[in-house]
Amino acid sequence: MIWLTWRQLRTQAGATYALLAVLAVILATTGSQLLHLYETAGADFLTRLTEADNSLYLVGALAVMALPALIGMFWGAPLITRELDAGTHRLVWNQGVTRTRWLITKLGLTGLAAMAAAGALSLAVSWWAGPIDATADGSSVLAGFYFPRLSPLMFDARGVAPIGHAAFAFTLGVTLGVLIRRTLPAMIVTLVAFITVQVAVPLWVRPALIAPARLTTPISAANFRLWDGENVKVLIDKPGAWTIGQHTIDAAGRSVAAPSWIPDCLGQVRAELDTGCLDRLGRLGYRQLVSYQPAGRFWTFQWYELGIFLALAVLLALFCAWWIRRHVS
Amino acid sequence: MSLILKARALGKKYRRRWALSNCTLDVPAGRVVGLVGPNGAGKSTLLNLASGMLTPTSGDIEVCGGRPAGGTAQLAKVGFVAQDTPTYAGLTIGEHLRLGDRLNPGWDAALAERRIRRLGLDPRQRAGRLSGGQRAQLALTLGIAKRPELLILDEPVAALDPLARREFMRDLTDAVAEHGLSVVLSSHLVSDLERVCDHLIVLVDSRVQAAGDVDALLATHHRFTGTRRDPAGLPADHHVVSVHHSGRDTTLLVRADAPVDDPAWTVSRPDLEDVVLAYLGRPATDGHSPRSALEALR
Asked: What domain of life does the UniProt record list for this protein's source (chain A) (predicted)?
């Protein structure tokens, strides 16, 4: 069964691992230069990055985020659906191996290969981007398009969470394939479902995993970030933190809407920020209550997310086993 | 008589439709059993239940003394060549044999290789590039080389041209003679089965209409021809299977141990196809006629 699983996987796995190897070589050769620059450049490290470094920073992050989706589509969805399409399940289920063992071997080995690919890629990209991440994490102001590791835009492209994403996307593809029973529609639905989950988790699930820290800060020209049309948004002096929510409170600590005169002085587009307007807010006792996740929780969130997605993958695998025993012939 | 397959009130329902209902059947061991019936009679459902591909909705089925697909020991006892003889298009013939070797404890590698050589197939050729007949032979090889007690074949020749059909059947007969395994194979054409089978089961609308060794079936069925009349006057042990009026004549197909010696009837021996067609043409118990299904086939 191991041989058959390997024989059926080797084309996709070979292509995936070959691409990863190419990327790994590029990261390895440029990564040491990046590290050297980081150690010598000091404060203006980010400004001295080359165009190529910036591209690779983006490509690396996108690759780590895209790999689980691709694994779900191209390894997961066809894994069993292809057998059902061709009728070969009726050949293989009548050899001397039970359906359950067949499924466990296929899911287990292919799933491990998927997790290893995602883990290796995330490890390589996280190592390569280490200097940039350290700089972005150490800065309390927004550093151009370099994001702290805990920000939703970068979290899925770092650490161990992508291993869980790959396991989940793979079993999601298998499950949808078995339910839909047609390869192409199953691939598309897998992609849509996986993206939906990846958008929903940072919006609603991840912020609630650990109760956020809170702080109140006066509103000033120094920390003012933007006026979104209804609320003032400020930056907090917590390097690398992920700001989850903020609202304005008055001198008594009650949550309030911004005063009616604020849109007049902040709402217009002008070259210079009207600092008097912000000073007046501060004098009247308005402050900003900010809830955030500190940068130090990055690894805690990573392990949580790995655990959650692995658990989801196991549940989906169990569902597949039950469904195949009950409904497929 | 030891049984290789025993079904009791067996039924399988898909959503609202019963594909097989209340089927009771005994299949003796050591025979080549033909399962014949029109499309939709439940042949394929029955064979899939016997191989464990399907689980019954109602009733029981026992194959080689165990529950179909009930474990590795049971899987080793039963070989199944599914309809359309599926194989892995991307795998070579050699890789299929390796698959059989890896997945079956009792795999007979020498037998499999000998068969492939005798069929003149190149082990390096991909199964996707084989003709329908060659693919069926490959699927049969996988079924035989696992050395099962019972080999089940679901319409193995339905998609083959007449020549490939004949070759496949001859090859199957040789394999059966060589290895002494029991075989159940289905077809909607009697002509496919009569050369190879020594036992026949006629299935119409889930019901076993007739079952028995071919010799016995032929010995107990008689064709009565005479001037047009009602067949009610025949003795009680004469079961009229079919009645056919044409012009002034009446032709009956009658099941009886010994035909009555009545000068009003001319008695002759029907061939196997006549017997089977008489059963297939009988009005079905639930009203709709299987005759139309049969005529569509012929």
From this structure: Bacteria
Q: Which of B53, B72, B99 sits opposite A90 (nearest CB)?
A: B53
Which of B98, B102, B146 lies at the smallest CB-CB distance from A1? Answer: B102
Write out pLDDT tens, residues A267-296: 666 666 677 778 888 888 889 999 999 999
Residue B48 touches partner A, C-beta closer than 8 Å? yes
Q: Is A42 helix (H, G, I), strand (E, B) or coil?
A: helix
Give chain B positions within 8 Å (CB) of A2.
Answer: 102
Eight-state DSSP code of residue B238: -
Does a structural domain hold residue B210? no
CB-based contact B86 A96, cutoff 8 Å: no
Which ipTM did the prediction report?
A: 0.87
How far is the alpha carbon of B98 from chain A, nearest alpha carbon, in Å? 9
Task: Give the lowest-confidence range in A56-70, A125-139, A259-273, B228-242.
Answer: A259-273
Pairs across A and B, CB distance < 8 A: 73
Long-range contacts of B213-218 (CB under 8 A, 24+ apart): B213/B31, B214/B272, B217/B272, B217/B275, B218/B269, B218/B270, B218/B271, B218/B272, B218/B275
Choose one of B160, B179, B204: the last residue of a domain.
Answer: B204
Does residue B213 lie in a domain region? no
Dist CA A47 CA B144 (whole Å): 71
CB A137 within 8 A of CB A148: yes
The total number of structural domains that make up chain B? 2
Q: What is the pLDDT of residues B32-82, one digit of tens each?
A: 999 998 888 899 999 999 999 999 999 999 999 999 998 999 999 999 999
CB contact under 8 A, B86 and A97: no
DSSP secondary structure letter of residue B31: S
φ, ψ dihedrals at A306, nearest 5°: -60, -45
**CB proximity list for A23: less than 8 A, separation 6 or greater:** A60, A63, A121, A124
Residues in A touching B72 (Cβ below 8 Å): 96-98
Of A4, A90, A329, the CB nearest to B99: A4
Residue B66 belongs to domain spanning = 3-204
Same domain, B200 and B226: no
| Alpha carbon distances (Å) from B279 to A105, B89, B154, B284 | 48, 40, 21, 10
Q: Best mutation site among B77, B85, B88, B95 for testing chain A: the one with the most A CBs within 10 Å?
A: B88
Is A106 within 8 Å of A79 (Cβ atoms)?
A: yes
Among the candidates B173, B204, B235, a domain finishes at: B204
Spatial contact of A309 and A168, defined as CB atoms under 8 Å apart: yes
B260 is written with which tokens? Answer: 């009555």
Distance CA B274, CA B279 (A): 9
The answer on B239 and B128 residing in a single domain is no
Q: B197 and B227 in one domain? A: no
Q: Do A96 and B76 touch (CB under 8 A)?
A: yes
Please give the average per-residue pLDDT across B95-114, as a whole number.
95
What are the residues facing A289 on neighbouring strands?
Answer: A216, A247
Contacts of B104 in chain A (CB under 8 A): 95-96
